[in-house]
Amino acid sequence: MRDFLADLQRLEEAGSGAIRAAAAIDRLEEVRVEILGRKARLTQLLRSVRDLPPEHRRTAGSEANRVKQRLQELLEQRTAELTADQKEEGPEVDLTLPGRPRWRGARHPCTLVTDEICGIFKELGFVRARGPEAETTWYNFTALNTPLDHPAADEQDTFYLDADVVLRTHTSPVQARVMEKTKPPVRIVVPGVVYRRDPFDASHAPAFDQIEGLAVDEGINFVEFKATIGYFVRRFFGEDTATRFRPSFFPFTEPSAELDVSCAICHGEGCSACKGTGWVEIMGAGMVDPAVFDNVGYDSERYTGYAFGMGVGRIAMLRYRIPDIRLLYEGDVRFLGQFARA
Ligand code: PHE
Question: What is the CATH number of domain 2-89?
Answer without folding.
Answer: 1.20.58
